[in-house]
Amino acid sequence: MKFTALTKWSAAFGVAAIAACGIAAPASADPAFLAANNDQGNFGVLAGVGSDTIQDIDNGLQAALGHTGAATTNWKFASYDATGSAWISTKYLGDPMYRPNGSGAGRDVLLTAIGYQTSASSTTFSGVKGTWKTERVAGQVQFARSSSGPSGDNLPAGVIAYVPFAKDVVSYATDASTDLPALSVGTSSDVADGTTHIAPSTLWSIYTCAATKVVTGGANDGALVDSVYTAGAGETLVPIHAYVPQSSSGTAGYWQGKDSASKFGSTLPSCVKRAGIAGGGHEGVSVQEHDGTVLEGDTGAIMPFSVPQWVAQGNSAAILSDTGVTVTDRRHGAVLGTLNGVTPISGSTGTFAMNTDLLTDTGASPSTGNNKPSWLSRTMYHLVPSAKMDDATSAEYAMFGTGGLICSATSTITKFGFGTLSSGCGDSSARRYAAAASTVTATAPRTMGYDDDTTFPISVSVSSNGNQGGLIEIEDASNTVIVTGTVAANTTTVTINVPIANIDDELEVWFTPTLSGIAADNAAVDKLTSVVTATNTGAKLKKTGTVTVSVRQKGAIPTGTVTIKDGSTVVGTGTLTVLSGGRVTVTVSAFPAKGTKSLTVEYSGDANYAQKLDTTTSYVIKK
Amino acid sequence: MTRNRRLKAFPAFVLLNIIFGTAFAGLAVSAANATEGDGTPVVTETPVPTETTAPDTTTDGSTANESTPVTTVPAHPRATRPVRSVSGDITKNDDGSVDVAWADGDRDNTDPNYDLFADLVFHVSNTENLSYQVVDVTWVNGVTSPQGEFSRNYVQIMQCWDDGSGTAKPENCQWGAPSSALSSIAGNNAAGRGLIENEDAAQSYADGFRIPPPRTNPNLRQFAVPFVSVDGKRDFNVLSFFDSTLTNEITGAPTANDGTGSQPFEVHTSLEAPHLGCGAVQPGGAVQDCWLVIVPRGEYNTAGIRYTDNIGSRLNSSPLSASNWADRIEIPLTFKSVVSGCAIGAEEQGIVGNEIVGPAFSSWQAFLCRDSAVFGFSQIGDSEARRQIVSELDSAARLAIVSDPLDDTTAGTATLEYAPVAQSATVIAFNINYLLGSNSDIFDKNGTLVTDLTLNARLVAKMLTQSYRNDVPDGDNQLYLRSNPRSLNHDPEFLALNPEFNDFVGYIEPAGLLTALGNSDAYSAVWKWIRADEDALAFISGTEDEWGMKVNPYYEALGIDADTTLDSFPKADQSTFREYSYIPDPGYSSFELRPYVLDMAESALKVLRADPGSKIYWDETRNPAAFISQGAQPLGRRFMLGVTDFASAQRLGLSVAHLVNFGGHAVAPSEDSIAAGIAEFTDSEVSGVSVFNPKMTGSNSYPLASIDYAVVNVCAASDAQLRDYATLLDFVAGDGQHIGSAYGDLPDGYVPLSDADREATRAISKALTSEVKSPECAEHVTTIDTTTTDSTLLPPVVDADGPGIVDTPLVNVAAGETPRDPSSAAKFAILSALCFGIPSIAAGRVLVRKGMDLPT
């Protein structure tokens, strides 16, 4: 089914079009479909997409912050899950779009929506390759969820601000009856001892394959050992199965194997797997983020697990009844171990909370260098266009800014297991992505000679990513704005009528695009040049003859003088007036000697037209 | 077609394409070098600001500069620089190095970071008369940095131009374009120039620091330190001047467990960084000076907040912000003038040759062009150079600088003279951090640089034949490698020679051994050395070593054990790997995992920057999706090795490996050991020319020493060529053998010729001059060169064309305009790339299935 056809339909039939086009959606119409996965029957003032790690808490915030008015009005804050149906629609009568899955996809769709780039593509949760284009998504997405921080260096003039609002800690999870001991973070120098073959009980030992087995029973019960260690009396060796989630997961990239920013190294060592290892009971099962399936029943299995996710999943029944938000409990019995001696959670089912000691390293032992729980903490961000964060009157500023609605919703943040930011919540100084360029040109054809003209038109033509139009300002030489106009969305031209008094001014046109990811552009308004042609009407013998000159330009009547030259000698002149309609017959007083000659016809130009030379006229003079 | 033949056909195809590709690469390099003075140690026509328009030093074609030259370069007053800089007394040592103690400066002892910096003493290896080179910055009494991130207690280093005000200014510093890998482990703004309003009481936030709000966001209130170039251009966005691949800024350098730190710093002249202009000649004749600025970072922000209280628990704020800037140490840097006095557009005498002589020739050429002849050098490799001087092309050079003499077939009937010109060596440079297990006895060295490494022929052969598992795509799962160690540092043979590596953590691995494209006698020597070694020869023939390691069968199939003509480094393993189903077939190949570098000079640079350029990470979010590089190896976890020439390694301050010679001695390259190696060279069939001996036995003979000869095709050369060649050889035999860094000197890494060799070269020079005066070659005798004023009666000559037919005068074809047009470089580069690209694409696609056919 062609996407363009959809557009025409949805404008007229709204959401029914989505059901009609037969995509992965229940046959029933909109509210039920849209209500699934927290796509609300009404839409949101601010709509956002992106990370799955924070989709639950954002759903909670959406419920907590509520509608702008009655339940039938827009949500103040509308968050669309990363997982779920292939399509979403974020605005009333808006175009449906593919559902972005993950921090990276959310960021790219937001960048596309603000015109920083013209399109984005990535694989959706359902496996389909989604594409988004600026002209389709402009205005449909106001923010993105990101569990990864900004990369590269800060660009103060960047068009996207990374606005922090919560903290999480990625710790480790094991099966409830695990044989693994309590672990610390460790250091990159953790290795098995050369004599005893026992490695420190740390995440580094496991995720660098320094330790590949754990001892049960006997004198070294609970010790992590390497492959050389031989079991002593009463000891059994249980193989360690170290997992990371499949590679499109933000948590996987954060933990290990993506790049030099990955905590445990940029490459996956041979003992770390992304799918169930043989002998663990889940062979071949792809490891999903914050999903304990692959740990179930395997006493040697371990994987990274976001503590807030565990908390939210543990509180899922209470969350559902309190807020209506569904958090799928996919722990499958997995538990979080102590990290550097700190218990990661407090409370019990329904009242779990993350232990903020993990963020402050209170009571952690050891707590040196990077060997402490806070090393595994992450900041959670909302990506918001910078122009909105700088505008104190905008809905975005009220929502995401310091002291705004999100930063004030601390109980919701805690209920979903995240830590709050004491200072820095809502700070919008971390910015990235330089604005994309736009272009503008303008020409001024004018009608002349009619005394009752009060304006003259300037044709403006613009180009920008997605061509969503913008503001046009015509300024004079002292940068005073004379007239403004707008280029409508999905058009690229507009004609601006400027007062006739300015007809002689050097004018400048400025284009300020609607989309905040695109920079403004300016240009001088071009005066049109004229076309000059001359014809020879019967050059005859001797010395005189006439040349008819016409000066043509669409829509205006030129005035001025016409000069005919032989080399540098002037051989005839004529005058154009408004009444001449652009034509004049010039008598050439002294034709040159016989032969073929080239004469130059010059038009002086006038206030509207530039001077023009036409040297293509040649004459055959016969004697 | 049998399996083996198919396997053999492909590598031959690859080699053929490598040959063509090299030829084009050589032409591209020569065309590019003829126009650009891009600072890499490949010989160029040294660019000079004597153009008709502005004194613009930006003739290197760097894209960081726009095309409109600035019409006036403000001359900066050279203030009498006080010996006491604002940041403390600078103690000069006899070897040219300097020391500065941080506490000597005007310091505020109420600064919360004061105690962390109070004992710091910095040492810089060289600060005067600099050209493009690496200086070492070391320090003691620092606080140990955390591993893996720049959250606190580290050092930042940058280079700034001197505006004569007596101190370094933040606006003038090359800072703010970090690699994303480094900036992602530093705190907010710590790697850049951004400022946050009111974060620093000492910093101004006036309009000069405010980023002009654009029309699209009039509410913007962001601040940064703008960059001002030496010619007065000012911009908040540094990318128009430099980016992360061009900058030399050190975003962070760690302090080791023992409180010491060491960081090599690449010094940029105006050729590498025209916006700094260091070493450029100002109007008025003075040479532009610059500053080395070191900013130590402690644990407290500019507002006195401890780093643990920041988002991400890292120190934030730019080193350019006033309070951080006040903690700096600034050291004056003086430069050799980059101007050599050679005018672009002069007619030049073309010389061809190999890469080893490149840095030396560059230096000689820059000196000679002032008063003597102007030479252009095309680095086309030994084989091509040998062929060219006997070719029929009118425009061919007739002097080539190569290692091995021409064989009889190539030489034909040409009259060739050989003059020794330069002695150097091929080396294996390395950049390796100690990454030790916590139970190591030498744990204090953790994070510091390894200084000694020993490799024997078999180990080098193992790396060159992709026999380690991590040098092959999906190597862990390739059956034919299953009995091989994962990498060099897991190989018992390596550990026996380098026992400290037993203490390394298991997961650290080298990124292969960097090798360059192309053919050369130097590479041929490496293979000769390998084949001469009994163990190495057995290995490449297919015999297991004593630990069960076997050569990669793709290389065994190449027959390198018997191929005495092999003079390049093929990449023959055709395995490909794609990790996930969304990566399109076939995934990445050996060429992405272990890419070639362009030449030996680039190899040295990549070793320095610890960036092997391997592109194996599939980025779905790119448009179009592609394999991308993961960037340089992180600081503290570097393990790089590369084949390069000694001069390049010395210039960049790289450590070089001891290699084991035929006699079983592990020898590092040095003037003495290279000379000892050359002393063991054997006579070739050409008298006066000795050639590489792979079987050196001396206890101090470096096994990969090399000697370059200038071979002149006397009779095919014109008189003008002969005169110029004579000038060149005479200079080379004399002042050209003086080791130093001035133009005309022999750079560090070469060994001056012996007296006997110099005499031999002078004799050749005289012979060439006398050939002009009293020619003996048939080609020279019958020329009707009317400029000859010599009235000596010419002896009667039997004219080969028959009596009465006058030979046309030899056209003076060697001279040519210094080409300005870089498009030929691009054209050849494209051809070169195609020659390499096509076989690798072909290999990947066509031969995936063939990969399955391998003998197991």
Structure description:
In chain A, strand 10 and strand 11 (224-225) form a beta hairpin. Chain A folds into 4 domains: 3-164 and 379-432, no CATH class; 167-374, no CATH class; 439-527, C2 domain (Immunoglobulin-like, Sandwich); 531-621, Immunoglobulin-like (Sandwich). By secondary structure, chain A is α+β, with helices and mostly antiparallel strands. Chain A is built from 15 helices and 37 strands. Chain A starts with a helix and ends with a strand. In chain A, strands 1, 2, 7, 8, 13, 14, 15, 16, 19 and 20 form a 10-stranded mixed beta sheet that branches. Among the domains of chain B are: 88-327, no CATH class; 426-670, Periplasmic binding protein-like II (D-Maltodextrin-Binding Protein, domain 2, 3-Layer(aba) Sandwich). The longest helix of chain B has 33 residues, at 3-35. Chain B contains 21 helices and 33 strands. Mean pLDDT of chain B is 82; it is low at 1-10, 20-75, 77-84 and 785-856. With 856 residues, chain B is α+β, with helices and mostly antiparallel strands. In chain B, strand 24 (617-619) and strand 25 form a beta hairpin. Chains A and B meet through helix 5, strand 5, helix 12 and strand 26 of A and helix 3, strand 8 and strand 9 of B.
